[in-house]
Design brief:
With 404 residues, the protein is of the alpha/beta class. It has two domains: 101 residues, Urease, subunit C, domain 1, CATH 2.30.40.10; 297 residues, Alpha-Beta Barrel (TIM Barrel). 38% of the residues lie in helices and 23% in strands. The protein is built from 16 helices and 18 strands. It has an eight-stranded parallel beta sheet with strand order 8-9-10-11-12-13-14-15, with helices on both faces. Strands 3-2-7-16-17-18 form a six-stranded mixed beta sheet, with no helix packed on it. A hairpin with a 2-residue loop joins strand 2 and strand 3. The radius of gyration is 21 Å and the shape is globular. The two termini are 18 Å apart. The protein binds zinc ion (ZN).
Length: 404
């Protein structure tokens, strides 16, 4: 049993001054330091000046297999980026060996990320994810809109899914990703989702990331048209947006981006109990625009914040992501937005991914960070933690110290 006494514990949107936490594998208690000293005496570890305990951060969306990208991919708009991904895919994916993927996983741990959702296109990241220290929701991605290729594509997807299901370790969750409405044939989607429902697997999908996607799905025109005609000899969108959402009815799903969704689609997402993953830096770099968080709130949709992969980011760092969101959504009141962002990368993300963490409270896994700030702690701490990020001194997962 460990007893850590801090200047502050910030969890669930509440700042607890002079509090500490008692934990083993799970959190046993969150109490005022005075009470803990009276109860446990010498067994208490005083963390001292500027110490802040935080729940471990949860990154719901990353593509680890593209971690070799530095300046290879073209930023600014979605289509040039996608074309650069296709032109450089082999070089990038082959250029990221197991060590490269492990480095990206370690980068997340250094940045306080104790759980992540990895979207895997090829299964090349399976070993690194299976043996990582963090909790991993491992999303095997299904892609392919050509019905003639459906069996082969599904077979390949199944092989990867079964390989991930053969991994047996605490905190590793084999799961399913449907790439997007424009890239997966409905037969494949329905087959995969049937399996997900039968086996109670977690599911994620990209949805309405770019203006081009909106235009292609609505009008079968725009930037996507020449791309689909030339590469895939396809003249119509694989699914309409509404059809696509209907497939996920009855199975709460994490939809990534959702920048260009219409109100009726948001109503559908809300009704399904789905979650939106907001990746502000990726959206900016790919010219996708800024999601309207107020609209999500009006529809009472849970939203969480993610990094996306290094294919559309320069870091895997939720502090950076929250800071970008803080400045991107300049119409939102500053401090309340900071609180919301913290909740999005802790409790909300844990709930959306079905993980027993994201909060420092009794019964939850002891996934937590010992951090330190070099400035006075006050009620605006959630904001200052983003502006002047704390030093992350130690990271605990399931009560075990994994860093520091
Ligand atoms: Zn993505």
């Amino acid at each position: 049993m460990k007893i850590l006494l801090a200047n502050a514990v910030f969890t669930d949107g509440t700042l607890y001054r002079d509090h500490g936490v008692v934990f083993e594998r799970t959190v046993l208690a969150l109490k005022p330091n005075d009470e803990l000293r009276a109860e446990y005496g010498d067994r208490c570890v005083e963390l001292g000046e500027g110490s802040v305990l935080l729940p471990g951060l949860i990154n719901p969306h990353v593509h680890l297999e593209f971690s070799a990208n530095r300046s290879t991919l073209t930023y600014g708009a979605f289509m040039p980026w996608l074309q650069s991904v296709i032109a450089n895919r082999d070089e990038l994916v082959n250029g990221c060996d197991d060590a490269c993927i492990r480095h990206a996983v370690d980068m997340m741990l250094e940045n306080g990320i104790t759980a992540f959702g990895a979207v895997s296109s090829y299964g090349f990241d399976l070993d690194a994810c299976a043996s990582s220290l963090q909790k991993v929701v491992y999303f095997n991605e299904l892609i392919g809109s050509d019905p003639a290729m459906a069996d082969a594509l599904y077979g390949n997807f199944q092989e990867r899914l079964f390989a991930s299901q053969a991994v047996v370790r605490d905190g590793f969750y084999p799961s399913i990703a449907i790439h997007s409405p424009y890239s997966v044939h409905r037969i494949l989607i329905q087959k995969a989702l049937e399996y997900a429902k039968a086996h109670r697997l977690r599911v994620t999908a990209h949805f309405m990331e770019s203006p081009s996607e909106r235009e292609w799905l609505d009008e079968n025109s725009g930037d996507f048209k020449p791309f689909f005609e030339n590469f895939l000899r396809q003249h119509r969108a694989a699914n309409s947006a509404e059809e696509f959402l209907t497939y996920f009815d009855g199975h709460p799903t994490l939809f990534t981006h959702v920048v260009h969704a219409k109100d009726d689609e948001l109503a559908h997402i809300a009704k399904g109990g789905h979650t939106v993953i907001h990746c502000p830096i990726s959206n900016r770099l790919l010219g996708s625009g800024a999601i309207n968080l107020e609209r999500l709130d009006a529809h009472r949709i849970r939203w969480v914040c993610g990094t996306d992969g290094l294919s559309s980011n320069y870091a895997l760092d939720l502090f950076e992501e929250m800071k970008a969101a803080l400045f991107m959504h300049h119409g939102s009141d500053l401090l309340p937005l900071a609180y919301r962002l913290w909740k999005s990368v802790t409790k909300n993300a844990a709930e959306a991914l079905g993980l027993n963490c994201g909060t420092i409270s009794a019964g939850y896994d002891a996934d937590l960070l010992i951090t330190r700030v070099d400035y006075p702690i006050n009620e605006q701490l959630p904001l200052h933690l983003l502006l002047r990020r704390p030093a992350i001194e130690s990271v605990y997962i399931h009560g075990n110290k994994v860093k520091g």
